[in-house]
Design a protein that fits this description.
Blueprint lengths: L4 E10 L4 H12 L3 E10 L4 E10 L1 H13 L3 E6 H4 L2 E12 L2 H13 L3 E5 L3 E8 L1 H15 E6 L3 E4 L6
Antiparallel strand pairs: 1-3, 1-4, 2-3, 5-7, 5-8, 5-9, 6-7
Helix pairs in contact: 4-5
Length: 167
């Protein structure tokens, strides 16, 4: 049985209405899962946006996904950052913890270890901002569960190739 791996794919597309729906339709129509999805305009002059998709599959499925993305009309470039060389990937999460007493102190201590910032505070809660690799964000959230985890909002993965080459 072939190994299933997680891949981060960056797609440069025209920044126009309906493009994201077409990309998502490609995934849903073929039963591919999107683990994370972020979209942002990257060049206003050229009217281009970058869609960063994290998905999982065998090598054959990932190749099919990339080939099908390349066939979509508004797609300019498709890069599998996972295999094309070094890249940087980060995710941001806002994590609300409701706690008092020792649990409140412990949540601050753990936040310090993870370099999370308390960006809001009341007498009963904190909202922490944590940035890093998905695994780091997951670990922080898991540690906050027994301390009073109340809510989580995540951005999804953003990624970029290292070095001088674009995308």
């Amino acid at each position: 049985m072939e190994e299933v791996n997680r891949h981060t794919v960056a797609v440069l597309v025209d920044n126009e209405s309906g493009v994201l729906a077409r990309v998502i339709g490609l995934f849903s129509g073929r039963g591919y899962n999107i683990e994370s999805l972020t979209v942002a305009e990257v060049d206003a002059g050229e009217k281009l946006s970058r869609i960063t998709i994290v998905t999982s599959g065998t090598a054959m499925i990932i190749e099919q996904i990339k080939n099908q993305l390349r066939r979509l009309v508004p797609v300019h470039k498709v890069h599998d950052l996972t295999i094309e060389g070094p890249h940087v990937a980060r995710e941001l999460a806002l994590v609300k913890v409701t706690a008092t007493g020792d649990k409140r102190v412990e949540s601050l201590r753990i936040a310090d270890i993870f370099r999370a910032r308390a960006i809001d505070s009341t007498n009963e809660s904190f909202v922490f901002e944590v940035v890093g690799a998905t695994e780091k964000v997951d670990a922080f959230i898991k540690l906050m569960e027994p301390l009073g985890l109340a809510d989580v909002s995540r951005t999804g993965v953003v990624a970029i190739a290292r070095g001088p080459n674009p995308i």
